[in-house]
Amino acid sequence: MQLTSTFKLVFLKQMLLGVQLSAASSNSMSFHERKNAIKLSADAAIAFARGRTRWSQGLITNLSKNEKNKDILKSLLGRKYDNLRKPYCKSLKIPRSKKILRRCLRMCSRRKKAGRAQHDVCKSVLAKALAKKRIQVLKKLVPGGESMDGFSLLDETLDYAMSLKAQVDVMRRLLKTSKALNIKQMKAWGQGGLDFTAGGHL
Amino acid sequence: MQHSSEEMEGMASSHPALQLELPNGSGGAGHDDFFEQMMSGFAPTAWPLGLGNRSILVANKSLEESPDGEGLNYAAPYDGSSLLASRLRMHPGDSPADSSMLLQLGGQMLLHPPDAASGGEPGGFLQLPLSLGNGGSGVSTSGIFGDRSRGEVDPPFQSPNPTEAEALYNDGFNTGSLPLAAQAPLHQQVLQHPQNYVAATPTEQAPATTTATASGTAGGGTAPPKPRVRARRGQATDPHSIAERLRRERIAERMKALQELVPNANKTDKASMLDEIIDYVKFLQLQVKVLSMSRLGGAAAVAPLVADRSSESGGVGRSGGAGTPGSNNESLTAAEHQVAKLLEEDMGSAMQYLQGKGLCLMPISLASAISSATCRPQPPPGLNLRHSAAGDAPPSPSMSVLTVQSSNAGSADADVGKDGASYVP
């Protein structure tokens, strides 16, 4: 559903624009700089192509933390930049619920210690703790994930994973395509910007 | 199996209902006690094959649920269309042996080989109340598996209540799939589900918990007793149980969708499923990183890069130009050991380590091909670290880029591996 060719095309176009904007093709950049520039444009493009979701907003926010990237992002995303930049400020909610959860768990464990009658309750508590740990890891992975609750986190993870998959797919094809081209063409392409159309390869 | 434990409460409520429904055998009250005892002492592993769980659990889960307690999550069927959609997407992964299993289980509780009228399928039928939204289809264990070939539609929807299924599945469900054992009462049950769910009144719709006691065919009269028991439980924890079920159902729904997406997702446990998801997201992010490294300046063919590497100082070859070449002076062995150690622990950090040095992993065959292409034979290091074709020039990003590119190209179609570069362990 999400991995449509339209989505991929939009992503590709944005990414190439971004690469061009950040002058990643120049010879003057170092290895890391270039890699960062490409990654930046790729991420911005994926967020742009996806539209407005929690993770895309989180992604843009994270990218914008670096001042240098802000300008590039602004020019790349245009008016969508502000759209995407609006953060979801729900971070206040989380600490409170953590406290409650901890209290709950404490009570449960106390109850468990008192009488071992409720085996399944213990199990569920343990299971919940396990799941909680993993959810925390997931929150760190998904951009903007800290301020989401369980359900939306899973939704966003799904969305994000699909977009990442599309991103990887497009980038791989782009890589293959460019590899297939002659080195001279590569030079020309690199200097001339977006001379070639990769649409056919998608 | 946290789900199963979580679901226990939910299940317990539904089970009694199930029991009651069974025409065969369980005599109502006696079974209830037995059932509840079982539920309290439930250990996830105790269930014979999860599959039994599945079918039993009923309604809560669509059959496609992998055998496991997980299915229990679909507590609240009234999610309707979204559930339906997600269910439609899923494919049942169960083995057809369920019916026999169910029978085993059913011997005690749920299913009874019945009379199940519908097409003579054995096993009790649990209607899937779920359906609530979808117009629950009863699920007959055997029916389910038999119909699996039907395609997308959840096999579970075969049920002894074809009529209701048909009626309810107007929104695109595979209505034809339901073997008919038209059950008027069941139909009513299903229809009334959403309304009665909250009320938790002991009515025939009791299956609020979605345990549709399927035995519709034979057991037209079994409906009434079921609600009685369920209601008791339901009333006790009504808002909580409902909210709990709803929550579990939502989570299960999403996990299903994620299961489709993530490869290797045949884990039934929620925790391990989360692990898989985490690994997959990490892997994808790493791939993007690696790809962005290799795409420097638009990439280039391997050979020209290698050939031009020596003249790289001007950044001629690739449009990207040479980055800051790392120093080649360090001893190879130390780096190799370090990388080997890192590789065992965490692929990502190994890649990052290499990346920091401007190196990359590549298969030995490719390395030898490259070195022969450059006419500068060099014995490949033990770990395949290719730092330069010439061996005397400092390793440069171009080389690593090169290798990344080639490996990427080579593994372009490879599925989830560890990362973009292939390596020889």
Topology:
The complex is a heterodimer of chains A (about 200) and B (about 425).
Chain A: H1 5-21, H2 31-50, H3 54-64, H4 67-77, H5 80-85, H6 93-114, H7 119-141, H8 150-180, H9 183-192
Helix pairs in contact in A: 1-2, 1-4, 1-8, 2-3, 2-4, 6-7
Chain B: H1 2-21, H2 28-40, H3 51-57, H4 81-89, H5 98-108, E1 125-127, H6 131-134, E2 138-140, H7 141-146, H8 162-168, H9 184-199, E3 212-213, H10 225-236, H11 238-261, H12 270-294, H13 302-309, H14 332-345, H15 347-357, H16 364-373, H17 397-410
Antiparallel strand pairs in B: 1-2, 1-3
Helix pairs in contact in B: 1-2, 1-10, 1-11, 3-5, 4-11, 8-9, 10-11, 12-17, 13-17, 14-15
Written description of the protein model:
The complex is a heterodimer of chains A (202) and B (425). Chain A is mainly alpha-helical. Helix content of chain A is 75%, strand content 0%. In chain B, strands 2-1-3 form a three-stranded antiparallel sheet, with helices on both faces. Chains A and B meet through helix 2, helix 7, helix 8 and helix 9 of A and helix 1, helix 11, helix 12, helix 13 and helix 17 of B.
